[in-house]
Amino acid sequence: MMVVSIANKVSAMAIDWQRISDELGARGYAIIPSLLQSTQCSALVDLYTRPDLFRSRVVMSRHGFGRGEYQYFKYPLPDLVASLRRTLYPQLAPIANRWNELMGSVVRYPHEHEEFIARCHAAGQLRPTPLLLQYEADDYNCLHQDLYGEHVFPLQVATLLSQPGRDFSGGEFVLTEQRPRMQSRAEVVPLEQGDAVVFAVHHRPVTGTRGIYRVNMRHGVSRLRSGHRHTLGVIFHDAT
Ligand SMILES: O=C(O)CCC(=O)C(=O)O
Ligand SMILES: [Fe+2]
């Protein structure tokens, strides 16, 4: 099978960005089907055993984050990870800007990721945040928000690198949203190998009968019942 370059795949032609934008507006997340091919997924999983590529490794149980582990890539990022970050960002920045306008924030995001990263770096957020996560049977990821400093890009992307049913069972990606004065609501996001989910990092705007309000979002992973599961996380802001 031909390997499609990420730039071609992410371009307006190959992905229905209008649908993604609509679904993000309606629900705070959207699936990008087959963002990566299975060969690209396996190649990324194989990187997990290359300590030279990572700046730090986190064992989730040591921090109360859940069970399982992840590693943050160091700069320079592997080509595929760098190109995902660079090519997805310009599609998401207009959505992020619209959200901020609706939520009454004056922060606006530049068109290019390079420019946004310069803003992070100037504020001391210098460390790269893209990461690989690894789970085994009984592992899970507690509900959380990936905030790493003052500068936050409000959308992030997680790509499932393993195949449910074949490589693992359980281990579903979950999102919760907390609306003002209401209890939290959960949503399970069904993903196949290579599918990505774009979702709100922290807040998203919702239009109600009395105007626009802000809901608080969290994400996590339910307990794996068996097997192994890997994910690539692409966060667009860097960390302090
Ligand atoms: O493993 C997952 O699906 C969750 C990954 C995650 O928390 C992230 O990408 O920020
Ligand atoms: Fe996360």
UniProtKB/TrEMBL annotation:
Top-level division of the source organism's lineage: Bacteria
Keyword Iron (UniProt): yes
InterPro entries hit by this protein: DUF2086 (IPR018655), Oxoglu/Fe-dep_dioxygenase_dom (IPR005123)
Alphabetized Gene3D superfamilies for the sequence: q2cbj1_9rhob like domain
PROSITE patterns: FE2OG_OXY (PS51471)
Domain (Fe2OG dioxygenase): residue spans on this chain: 98-239
Protein keywords: Iron, Metal-binding, Oxidoreductase
Family: Belongs to the iron/ascorbate-dependent oxidoreductase family.
Name the UniProt record assigns to this protein: 2OG-Fe(II) oxygenase
Native species: Steroidobacter flavus
Lineage: Bacteria, Pseudomonadati, Pseudomonadota, Gammaproteobacteria, Steroidobacterales
